[in-house]
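Quick one:
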Amino acid sequence: MNNLLWLNDFLRCIPVISPTGTFKFLWDILVLVAIISFMFMIPLEFTFSLRLEEMFNAYYLRACISILIADFILSWNFGYFEKGLPITIRSHVIYNYLKKGLIIDVSATLFLFIDIIFRSNELANSYFHLLFILKINSIKVIFKKIEERFHLTPQITQISSLIKLLFLILTVSHILGCTWVIVAHKEIDSG
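Output:
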């Protein structure tokens, strides 16, 4: 019981981070870069049966996974909007994260963390890395937050929509290209 009181006192010392603050905005952009990076790296890992460390800089991989782990920790403390109002009551923030983000964050990040940080040598883990595709919805949410922050004009909103469409086309093309390479490898192997 005494430990729970200490934890409660500790959490009261840490303020809930405002969803309108500059830190939250910059953090969302950093997380967006990490998610997009993994969205392009994981299909390549799966396609060519090479570990991420063999294809990409280990420091960059660790930085990206560290950002995602830090985002998992900070998400318990990020305020959110509900019906246009910022919610910064800690119990509501925690409940909202449990309801909307916990399962996707854990399933998408856990196997990447174990594999990259602990340098697991099993290529079988790359199948679990495909769970990271669940984070694609996070990209949409972050783009929406960026648009809302700047109160974009209709012309800029159309340009933003065009950029999102271009990103979607590139992502789908990348995944389909990797799929075709897998099919070609299977055909070559089967004769």
